Amino acid sequence: MSADTTARPAAAPSRLRVWFDQHLHGLAFSLGRALRKPWATLLTIAVMGLALALPLGLSIVMDNLRHFAGSVQQSREINLFLKADVDAAAAERIAGTLRGRGDVASVELRTPEQALAGFRESSGLGEALDALGDNPLPSLLIVVPRGDDDAGLVAALEALPQADQVHHDAIWRKRLDSWLRFGERVVQVLSLLLGLGAVLVVGNTVRLDIQSRREEIGVLQLLGASDGFIRRPFLYLGVWYGLGAGLLALGLIAAAGWALREPLAALSASYGSQFALKGLDALHSGMVLLGTVLLGWLGARVVTGHFLRQTRPTET
Fold first, then answer.
1. Distance from CA of residue 86 to its chain's centroid?
2. Is 27 within the bounds of a domain?
3. pLDDT tens, 127-165?
4. Within 10 A of 51 (CB to CB), how many other CB atoms are there?
5. In this structure, which of 42, 70, 207, 310 has its CB flanked by the most CB atoms within 10 Å?
6. 177 in helix, strand or coil?
7. 105-140 b/e with 16+ CB inside 10 Å = b?
8. What share of the chain is helix, strand, coil (3-state, %, to 5)?
9. 141, 167, 193 — which closes off a domain?
10. Are 41 and 34 in contact (CB under 8 A)?
11. What's the Rg (C-alpha) of the chain?
């Protein structure tokens, strides 16, 4: 029996392979066009990176301020000064009763002797205090509330028959919260405006590239190329711009954080605090890069869609 020498036709590539090859070609082609115009590419990336670094830096500053404000435990303390005739045993019973409340996180008792010793050490007026004779300082209960609503607890402490004065500086905390909310809204508005500016920058750059290839695009349309095939390299060009701008913005934020870390540490140490500047972790950095890539893609998508609608050949 003779061998079958009939040649078999080569298998046609799958649609998935064709789709993958087209996207890989568009990705490489767009990167090549960006690298052939290095100064224009760097200028576009620099403008986008600077525009995106501003709201990103402000957002990090607001997060650090919120973290710092939440870490200042003294801002939540309520100072309950007892009457002079309340002795240490009675003050301890009052502290135990307050510890059993659901809206109280902790209670610290400072006796008149402890308060006088602390004042003597901090003021340096030991001889003058000795001349006073009797200790004029009352017992003090430092109450830390649980939760954010302190008004009910303050009213309950003021109603105690043993209470002489209640000091609770909550006004500045409310003002700080208002300023933080206002700052968050400012960051949101700036992010929207500068994000729109980044989209316009990418769109204008892609528009110039489209104009330089207008005749080539016209030939492709006459040959029956689809809008997706024509649009794909320009979309990837916008992606490259967005990726470069995101990396530049993250680099600027990292450089600013490195420059501010040492003076901020010295300032915090002067107040006896261990506060350190908190930057972006890997997850948030990845989200920033994803957002900038989407902005670049959106700018290119809007411009190419508008151009293709205007130049689509009319049927006769």
1. 50
2. yes
3. 555 555 566 677 888 888 876 667 778 888 888 888 888
4. 22
5. 207
6. helix
7. eebebbbbeebbeeeeeeeeeeeebeeeeeeebbbb
8. 70, 5, 20
9. 167
10. yes
11. 34
